Amino acid sequence: SLTDSPVTLKILQNWVPRFSHYFDKEHYTYVGHQIVIQESIEHFGAVVWPGALALSQYLESNQEQFNLKDKKVLEIGAGTGLVSIVACILGAYVTATDLPEVLENLSYNISRNIQNTNMHKPEVRKLVWGEGLSEDFPVSTYHYDFLLATDVVYHHAALDPLLATMVYFCKPGTVLLWANKFRFSTDYEFLEKLRNIFNTTILAEFPESNVKLLKATVREN
């Protein structure tokens, strides 16, 4: 599917001026909700990267194509939780996952943005790519309509376990939406591996941010 004709988009400045004097809080507006995200400088996973902004914006703008209402959604590498919060606002049953050291900040952001709403409260769980998947998320119990991932591919050693995790959770009927800033040759190599396994389409490109948004589904024989 190299003949994709993705739409070309710009990441909109969806954050509003800060009213707080804390350097670590960002305010965003998606789907009519103001979302306050606390970032943490200690962890890669605790900063809002451009892929998260791109996917949040795309989900907000394409609700007919990707209707998340009452769908089961798993986010891997959820980081600050922005995408999971947006999916939750759009009506999904969300499970937000990341490494143990990121979960406290992730839980905090999700709780503060979802409290006092009638949304399905997201579940926050530990997920180390490629580890304990069948024990922690047995196939018999867990089936997701959407698998969301943003900026999970960069210079790190866990790319093969990441791919294995995507393969594990992508069952027939699951849609993987992956947004990533493409910086390194390893990013493109990962994309090639993904294309070898899944039916893959580039839905959108954000050239100013070097972000591509891809949709992938299982090849059914």
Automatic annotation (TrEMBL):
GO MF term list: methyltransferase activity
BP GO terms, sorted: methylation
InterPro entries membership: Methyltransf_16, SAM-dependent_MTases_sf
Keywords noted in UniProt: Methyltransferase, S-adenosyl-L-methionine, Transferase
CDD domains attached to this UniProt entry: AdoMet_MTases
Any matching Pfam family: Methyltransf_16
Protein name: MT21C methyltransferase
Taxon lineage: Eukaryota, Metazoa, Chordata, Craniata, Vertebrata
